[in-house]
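Letters spell out the chain; the tokens describe the backbone. To illustrate:

===
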Amino acid sequence: MKWLFIFLLVINVAYMGWEIDHQTRINLNNRKEALPVPRGVDRLVLVRELNKTPETKTANNDSPDIETVDTDISEAAKTAADIQTGVSGMTNDVKIEQEIVNLLVSQLPDISTRSISNNLSETQQTCFSYGPFPDDQQTADLIAWFEERRINVQQRLEREQENRLFWVYLAQQESRSSAIKAIEDLKSKGIRDYRLIETGDLRNAISLGLFSTQAAVNRRLNELKDRGYQPVVVPYRDAKMVYWVDIKLSSQTDVMSEMFTGFPARYNSVPVNCTKIAQK
């Protein structure tokens, strides 16, 4: 117990010493001292510190000397003259430079801006193609609609992509009555989808369908052979001419909005590159 008391006493004494030292350092840091004045600097003396009060000076004349004023006026006039001379010199320089520019411009080659404006107008154009149409009656109505709005429009005719098909039919009969009997026989055996050919080189033959795949042809042939028929199969190319309507729009934004909401909206249209549309 004794040693514990001594230990605590030593700690308290050490802590008190640290506090005293800490406070002393704070006081030293906060102490105010006069700043040292370098040598050779005149000392500022207040009026009340003077041994003798200085004499009061009286102003003889508040206006400046006339000779001094005249000198200042002459110097200002000279400066103004120099400025005026400089400005006139700059004006002459500008005139000379303008003459040189005009001479150089007159020697430039004559560059036509017509091609440039045409290229700019082409880049601002938007083109669409409407179709395909099976006849020109529908294209006539569409063309009239665009022409009323002063839109560049034209019609073109092209061959539609050919579809390779297979035609199955029964050979020609001797007469129409024989062909009708053959049709009645097809009905009795459950054969459907047939049609009597009444004109052309295959008159009185019986068409049994067009098929786009070999598998469909094989199914039809097997059906007919199972019922005792010997049909004929020939390749058939389905190609026809169709109509397209091409238009070019420049800045008719009101017409473009009406295209997708008005009369032309009922037809199929696709945007196309204007360079691919033939010019009229």
